[in-house]
Amino acid sequence: MRRLVLCMLAILATALPAWTEQVKGSLLIAGGDFRLDNPGWPRLVDLAGGKGATILVLPTGSGDPVGSGGRIVEHLRGLGANAILLPLAEKGFDRPAADIVTDPVWIDRARHAGGFFLVGGDQSRYTAALLRADGTDTPLLAAIRTAHARGAVIAGSSAGAAIMSATMIKDAPETLDLLATGPIAGRTLGPGLGFIGPDWFVDQHFLARGRFARTLVAMDSAGYTRGLGVDENTAIIIRERKTAEVVGASGVVVIDTRTARRVPGWPFEQTGSVLSLLRDGDQMDLATGDVTPGSARADAPILPTSPGFEPDPELPATLATGDILAPWQFGRLMAQVLESRKGEATGLAFDAATPATRPAFRMLLTRNANSRGWAGDGITVLNLTIDITPVRMADPLFSPLRP
User: Fold this and answer.
1) Which of 16, 203, 235, 380 has the smallest count of CB within 10 Å of its CB?
2) Helix 139-150 crosses helix 104-111 at what angle (to 10 degrees)?
3) What is the CATH number of the domain that holds 104?
4) Residue 296 is assigned to a structural domain of this protein
5) Are residues 279 and 361 in the same domain?
6) Per-residue pLDDT tens over the stretch 116-161
7) Looking at the 3D structure of the chain, how many domains does it have?
8) Measured in Å, how far apart are the chain's first and last C-alpha atoms?
9) How far, in whole angstroms, is CA 43 from its chain's centroid?
């Protein structure tokens, strides 16, 4: 199965543009639920060129393109941008998408725009509209790439974030099924638009929906070793594919599997993946992985290997959870592992209704000699290791305490 998925993605990749050109533009990748009071919005206007800059809003992924796109246009205009709704969607507009992507007027507007915003919804609608049947760029997408290479910002939330990598998750099954049997050929993974370049995989709603496990499977299946998991109401700003900065209320998980060991076959088994959790204001060099903490945390380092390290006394001696895929659970565990006495946490992922009939998974999150972080409004966590091992659960899981 994995070989088939890789072959399909390799064929699709041949239709993508070359990545050798220099890109002067920025990306603003939001993980969904990108609220209008998030400081990322004025940053988007600044990246597009400041007040008066033209930003084209693409509502293509939305089920209500006119309504959702219109609200974002209004908000960006309130911030001083010359925001314009680009009428590219399956419904809601008078002209079909095939006309818009070849329209010289819209192509010219895109080529000279300072920025683009891709509305959330269904990411497959973006690739269906902006890529030809053979996977090559439509004229409109080519114009967007030209503008980005010259300096324009491309932003997107939720589905607009999923399309940022060259391969995206299209329609993932339940995470336990994905861990048990792997991606479904032709359905789970598909071509994205690749604005971030060839080296990074992107997933969204990351902590709010417990998506770290599905991302690890997708990265392994598609051949990625670096990934970004962007949480809700949070964005990561990437400049010229070189540096990244986190903006917003939650965080971004950076995934590095370059030193991981993958046991062949399914169910999924992998050890040694390295994870970091970046918070608002944190910056990272994408080439070296070096992290500079945000000013709110820079003066409060957490150094577990230092002689003066004091574990959080309120944390239990043993960290464990029976549902590591639960909403927000993984982000909490990462912070707790960094500050705990033992520096490890065990989590389980299984089907409680029929625990013995489906593969279950034990996930061990551990601190190591390179783990460190900073405290403040949200804890930055660097270099934890995760091991995922298939296990068998008992059925029943429990028995009555009294007869």
Assistant:
1) 16
2) 20
3) 3.40.50.880
4) no
5) no
6) 999 999 999 999 999 999 999 999 999 999 999 999 999 999 999 9
7) 2
8) 47
9) 19
